[in-house]
Amino acid sequence: MSVKDYADKDYYKVLGVSKDAKPEEIKKAFRKLARENHPDQHPGDARAEQRFKDVSEANSVLSDPKKRKEYDEARSLFGGGGFRFPRGGQPGSAPGGVNVEDLFRNAQAGGGLGDIFGDLFGQAAGGTNRRGGGRVTRRGADVEGDVTISFEQAVDGTTVGVQMVSEAACAACRGTGAKAGTVPEVCQTCQGSGVRTSTNGGVFGITETCTDCKGRGLVVKEACEVCSGSGRAKSAKTMQVRIPAGVTDGQKIRIKGKGSPGENGGPNGDLYVLVHVRPHPLFGRKDDHLTITVPVTFPEAALGAEIEVPTLKGGKVKLRIPAGTPNGRTFRVRGKGVARSNGTTGDLLVTVEVEVPAELDEDAKRALAEFGRALGNRNPRARLFGTSHE
Predict the structure, then answer these.
(1) pTM for the complete prediction?
(2) Which residues of the chain are under the pLDDT cut of 70?
(3) pLDDT (tens digit, 9 = 90+) per residue, 77-93?
C-alpha cells in the first residue's frame, strides 16, 4: 500500500469511533462490527465480506499503539497528498506550527532525512532493509585507507593517523539536496516509500528502488548547487587508528562503523586499513616468531662457544653454541618474539651461518693445512661416490 493510500484511509470512521478513542472503545467497536459482517453470517455477500476486511484492517492499525502513532502522523502530514499546512500558515510549515525548513536544517550529518521521515512510512511497500518498515535505508559505503609502519611498530602495536575520504551530508544543504531556501517534496512516483513494486507481466511482484528519487523518498525541484541534489559530498579527514601488536604486512584491519554515513537511518559503513610494514635490516618474521641469522667462525662452530645475539628491543641475549654445530642450524630463544593476543609471546629463532674468510694470511693458511693433515685429509664427499647400498 502506498503512503498516500495509507494516509487517505479513515480507520476511525471505518470503526465508528472518535480519533481520541481509548483502546477499549476500539476493541469493542471492532468486535461488534466483525460479528455483524462476518462472512459466515452473510454467505455470498461480497459487500459484507469487504466490510469485514475493512474493519479488520482498521483494527490491526488502531489496536497497535506504534502503528496507530505512525498512522496519525502520516495522516497529519500527508493526508490528501503532499504536505498539509495549517490554515493561515506559511509554505514550509508543518502541522503544529513546526517549520519544515528548520527540520531539514537540523538534520544530523549521516542520519540524513531518515530521522525526520523514516517512522512515518510504516505501512509502505514491504522490504527487508527498512527503518520502521517504511523508506529504504542504506548502509554507508565502506572506506579504505592504507598506512606504512615500521617493523618495530608492527610487533609492538601503534596508533597512526589514517587519511580517508568518505561521503557525508552536504554542508551546503545539510543533506536535503535542495537549494538554499527550498525544501524537498515527497516523491509522487513511490509516494515517499523510496521503492516501487512491479510485476513485469508475471505473477510475483518485484520491489526495487524508485528511479525517480533514487530511494530517498523525496525529490527536489531546485537542486543544491554544491552536491547537485544528491545531499552527499566528499569529506576528507584524518582518523587515529589503533594498529594491534603482531600485525603483518598486507593485513587489513576493520574498524566497524567508521566508514561513510548511512542514509535514511541506515548504519555507517566500515573503515578498512591496509597495513604495509617496512622490512628490518636484521630481523624477519615467521608467524609469531622473530628470526635472525647470526654469523659464527669455523672454530666457534667446531669447538663450541657462547655468543651474544641482539634482540628487537635493543638488548642482548647469550646463546650457547655446542661443539660441532653445522652451518644453518637454528636455535630458539624463548619469549623474545611477537606478543600474542592471549598474553603469550613468540620466540626468537637464531640461525647460525659459518663464515668463511675471503682472504687468509700465510700463518692462517699454514694453520689450516696443518688442521687438514690432523684430520687425515678425510674427504667428506667420498660417500657420494661409493657403491650403492642394497
Answers:
(1) 0.49
(2) 1-7, 77-136, 166-168, 198-207, 235, 264, 387-390
(3) 655 444 444 444 444 44
Measure the CA dihedral 118/124/130/133, to 10°. 90
Which grid coordinates belong to 42? 452473510
Strand partners, 349: 291, 332
Q: Which residue has the cell 593517523?
A: 161
